## 1
Amino acid sequence: MSENLIPPNDSPWNTVWTNARLATMVGDGEPFGLIEDAAIAVTGRTIAWVGKTADLPAEGLAECSNRYDCGGRLVTPGLIDCHTHIVYGGHRAREFEQRLHGASYEEISNAGGGIVSTVRDTRSASFDRLYAQSLPRLQTMMDEGVTTIEIKSGYGLTVDDEIKMLKVAKALHASNPVEITTTFLGAHSIPPEFSGNSDGYIDLVCDEMIPAVAEQKLADAVDAFCETIAFSPQQVARVFDAAADYNLPIKLHAEQLSDLKGAVMAARRGALSVDHIEYLHADDVAVVAENGTAAVLLPGAYYCLRETQLPPIDALRKHRVPIAVASDSNPGSSPVGSLLLMLNMACTLFRLTPEEALAGVTRNAALALGMDQETGTVEVGKDADLVAWNVGEPAELSYRIGSNPSEKVLYKGAVR
Ligand code: NIG
Ligand code: FE
């Protein structure tokens, strides 16, 4: 975020929002952590006071010049998209057509298309071109109230091209009022030059890419794609060992197309999240729960691939695994630009409740990124990331399709 967006800290409260229907998303109390007729006061970048408008200390309000009367609007935490691949070159509309002519995602991948075709387009794109192609994708997300977004590498698959992708994500962060966390996903696919030698590619990921990315502080976490068309749990374990050498948290694309037990392996190693997990066996959910790992559901990929195997939602609920929801925005399996649409799909396709879906893009998405101390709920001490919506009911955010009721966004205390 550029410095001029930070409000001067010359009064105890820089901003006060009043008369909100506030979904704090603080768990275990009212549904949605709802406070009626609520007020929120902000000092600098941080939430300083939350409560009933009627209880707002009068002296603080009198001294504050930035006041906003929410007029009964719903206010939520800023939305968090905790799993995206929005930095990439080209697109895969032709594969969309091929799938409609009968080819499967795996068949296209095995025939040299899929992720590898985006790798070609990403490698050939300059830094500036990648930035220019990715920026509108970020802006579309921000328009819908996203204040934190995770961006993965994984379409470069050489040391230099992975670094190029992560630097584009860092540049997007430097020039836009949104929190961006970066995840190194070198173990996303076997690049053509390593065809038949996936172990050799894992050597490159572990011995060169992770050290370079860590030394340049380009990634907040390390991810991998554990699947028959990508990497085995044993190979991913090597990637996770290398991540541990640099104290980088881990996450995993696991059990998207088959049950390789990647999620169990990742959870046992303390992964922040396991993502997709349609084929995660209900009996394995206890292991995910015991290790405090979040489950990230990606209804856009489920929908686009016309998957029919549902993630083990009831087992996740029973074991109280934090369930996050994300866009998985990528050119192949989830060309999605709307996190609000994911709320609807999480409810319609996965039968999450609107409260679970909203928690999935706020509180639990923060957990999936290891950012729950900073954001994800409206609580004193957290970042002042807030959205006022032109709706009154929290369920309206997941009920409507194709409308964007975002009215006003506060990002770390500054109006966006
Ligand atoms: O999360 N599953 C692997 N990776 C992406 C797909 C990327 C692509 O098809 O380009 C995903 O769905
Ligand atoms: Fe993904």
Note: The two ends are 11 Å apart (CA to CA).
## 2
Amino acid sequence: MNAVIRGTGVYVPPKVLTNEALSQMVDTSDTWIRERTGVTRRHIAENETTVFMAAEAAKAAIRDAGILPEEIDLIVVATGSSNVIFPCTACEVQREVGAVQAACFDLNAACTGFLFAYNTACSYLQSGFCRCALVIGAESLSHLVDWQDRSTCILFGDGAGAAVVCGEDGPDVAAVMHSDGRLGDALVCETCHQKNWQEKTQATLLRMDGRSVFQFAVKKVPEVVEEVLEKAKLSKDEITYYILHQANQRIVESVAKRLGEPVGKFPMNLSEYGNTSSASIPILLDELKKSGQLKKGQRLVLAGFGAGLSWGASVLTWG
Ligand code: UT7
């Protein structure tokens, strides 16, 4: 069973925070941020909630797919920063879009979230449990970032991306997922849903050992791409684009180099959005689709990494 992306959609908040504006808030500069990360601007939610952004992206993806909401039988939302714990974000989206036949749940794998949610949906499609899934990555990391910590607040942005994925006859999906909880301390955000949390507000903010995460990403992402290509029995020549989680331009360039592939096969949009965590891959997919760069039959590799630590990849054929 092949899984085909029938439609995509995004919601990105209109409010923009430029590097210049950030350098008025913390000790940094536009030059440092652009040279070390590739980010120029990021979009920040004002009144929009994670649920709102997820639902708007979902409506756009359903329109783009040309299906009825009732045809969707699974909704998986990848998020680590929702405004709701329960009902889950996916159920809130269901209510907004009218996908009354769908089973709904959220999945938290941080920045690897969309990749894990997509792979989860594909295995549900492959097992015959469902026929048409809505997979969403939605984040409001601006609420979790410490706006006094220049090493993290410059990186992240808010937004949501969605994909309608349907099962079709064809080659089985090739997917790989990994986690290593022993490395979890490198990127942490505790919840406030614990006893005496008011005394621990600092702990509820995102903390990252940037260098460790960087080194982890540039080693593990090429490895997992090679692993998924071997599983799919495909060579790199047969891949049109590698759609990587958009965390840092230097990470993407380093992955391209380690794979021996031209960087032109690694589209990027993090200059505009920063790192939108689980939303980055579907936002990039939507941009490529809308700009006409994706053609039927092309093979794409999706690859993500993030807190957990976790990482994974998937090969898909554009339908
Ligand atoms: O979605 C997955 C999650 N995250 C990631 O993928 C992040 C992976 N890591 C990174 O992208 C990079 O490690 C960062 C962009 C976070 C940092 O870049 P770096 O090149 O690894 O910098 P560094 O942490 O080694 O710091 C170098 C210097 C330090 O100063 P000293 O100690 O050399 O004097 C930092 O204090 O840069 C300083 N620095 C800054 N300077 C200006 C750190 N942040 C900033 C800043 N502006 N915003």
Note: The chain has a mean pLDDT of 95.
## 3
Amino acid sequence: MAIILSGRDLSDKMKQDYKKEIEQIKQKHNIVPGLAVILIGDNPASLSYVKLKEKACTEVGIVSHDLRFNADYKEEELLKLIQDLNSNNNIHGILVQLPLPEHIGEEKILCAIDPEKDVDGFHPVNVGKMMIGAPSFLPATPSGIQQLLLRNNIGIEGKHVVIIGRSNIVGKPLAMILIQKKPDANATVTLCHTRTKNIAEIARTADILVAAVGRPHTVTKDMVKQGAVVIDVGVNRIEDKTRKRGYRLIGDVDFEEVSEKASAITPVPGGVGPMTITMLLHNTIQSAKKHAGIE
Ligand code: NAP
């Protein structure tokens, strides 16, 4: 049976460290990290992500500025708000929860955020820096996956990592992070998507298999090499009348059967999700330190 890679446990440990670090920064430098969290509209999934982020901020001592607006909030208003936040010295990170309503241009908004406060790592400047391996804010989900592997003593160097899914927030940046010429990376990466032929065959060659698709049962037992490490990024709601809320969350991987073959596997929930939030906290603290000139 596979070892369960608990992002929840690791995240709890990391948050304890962040709490201490923030306390020290506060005492020595009189700085409290601040994160602006912008949510437009009332998408239930976005609302629950935002609440989790805000809760995690409070737990470690980051001041979370919750900025919520109706779905008809105008693009110009949002751009003006971001400008104000860019020049506000108490704000070290700006997060715009995606997806945005259709009348707001996502790229325009992400480009308006000061790259020095872009703790999501989605600004093209940070994406470019990530590509060349320069210091930058790394997107939270892929860097959380990297930390989850490394802190569980799963080496990445020299491994064949197969990623299913090529989105700008998970698949592509994860590939970019893991191919860097660095000891905590140095992987050989294959990125698969809907036009990839023979995905099962490719998946079976993976030492580390990552599913970031958003479709239940995408990864089945026959697609996994004996002893591979399996990372399930997917979050899918499926109906479950036994639950009060009427649904439960499952990943992209057939957890039960794949865990018989894998050497390690992430659960859903409690795997990659908590790590995503933790890396957002990490980026916000780094930003606050940088703004205060702390090494
Ligand atoms: P996305 O933007 O919808 O991208 C999905 C990717 O999967 C696309 O590249 C798509 O290929 C590929 N794909 C879809 N069906 C496929 C199939 N049958 N075979 C091979 N590839 C297929 O999704 P995302 O934003 O990356 O998110 C993916 C999942 O991760 C979602 O369930 C999301 O909720 C979850 N997620 C979780 C976290 C977390 O913190 N736990 C964070 C982010 C996302 P094409 O490009 O060819 O269309």
Note: The chain has a mean pLDDT of 97.
## 4
Amino acid sequence: MPKTLTIFVCSNCQYKTPRWQGKCQNCGQWNTLEEQRQISNTKFQMSNAMAPVDLASLDVDQKPRIKTGIGEFDQVTGGGIVPGSLILLGGDPGIGKSTLALQLAMKIDAEVLYVSGEESVNQIKLRAHRINKDHRLNVLAEISLETVLASIADQHPELVIVDSIQTMYSEEVSGVAGGVSQVTNAVQQIMRLAKQNHISFIVIGHVTKEGYLAGPKTLEHMVDTVLYLEGERFAAFRILRCVKNRFGTTNEVGVFEMAGVGLVEVKNPSQLFLGEDSIKASGNIITSIVEGNRALLLEIQALTSVTNFGYPKRTTAGFDSNRLQLLTAILGKRAGLNLSNQDIYINVVGGLKIDEPAADLAVALAIVSSLKDVIIQDTVAVGELGLSGELRFVPNLEKRIIEAEKLGFKKIICPKTKITGKNKIEVIQVKTLTEAISKL
Ligand code: TYD
Ligand code: MG
């Protein structure tokens, strides 16, 4: 007779405790403990044994991936949706997950069922009308997991979109909708249906402020593919990133722009970030970062101004402020720049966040440019700075050079490495920060 065991699991950090408490002992959050029943069955019986399958004897006809018709999405998933797979699409509320899913549902050349627990059929109709005037789509507005699963099994579509997993509710499981037990159970049931009936699923999940996908991080382990839609709320661009993929690589990203007709694919992202109306002023310089497999050009702006009282300020938008402290120290010690009485502001134009050290050189040069009030024109700078002021190797340098050349820049300042291939752009290879400053 299996024993039932009741435990309480924190929906924030997954901490387990045998007794309910108001506050989680591990992460300190209030009201996050939820009841979960576990069946402990430690003894096994020989009569339950199963024979394994010999892979070599298996004959499978591999079904082709389903192309979605949205090029950027196909690229990120590694060539389309694998039949019978479960994709989790995460992102902050309001970032555009439902919009992307709806666009995909209307564009894909397959039988789709769009299950929504968030919006009514009328609301979906309005949104769909905005994106694509007249397109057929089967929609189900329902939150009961049992009803949804039964309808899917009955309709047997090729692709099901579930918007969102937090709204799916099962009578069989305790806990509130969106809680650990409900969400985990819903994904488990969907996964079983997907594998048994070869139906593909795109399941939408909200990310909480702390970055947890759908409450428990465990969801990410359960599904085949995890995609994140990211972006700043007030900037138009959106980046679709793959963080887990059982059927392909994870280093591709897709770039979209949120427009009046939904998300529009951006084929040339550098153009989106650079804009056309850049004015010529000191403190501005272009750098190149690599997102996934592609190089992007971005403008970095620095402003220095004399500190009026107290400590000098170091303020950044889109750049790590600790990194700025470090670069300021290097500029002071290795390039002899006196920044101790200067406030420094750094801004990455376009709202993107840079976390690549390859932007070091550009930030340092932007500060020099603002301090000395010299304008830098048609120049791209890339390179990581070491503490002794040396310029370090950056990966994918050639990709960055080609991107700079493609967008019509005349010079690129970069670390010394071997570069094959001939370039029209002037490649200035330098060893140190001071050498780079002298080339301006
Ligand atoms: P939505 O897909 O509802 O976000 P999520 O499902 O991730 O919560 O997108 C919401 C935002 O997108 C909303 O603030 C308005 C904007 N939007 C556009 O700018 N253009 C459009 O064509 C659509 C449909 C939405
Ligand atoms: Mg939504």
Note: The chain has eleven helices and 21 strands.
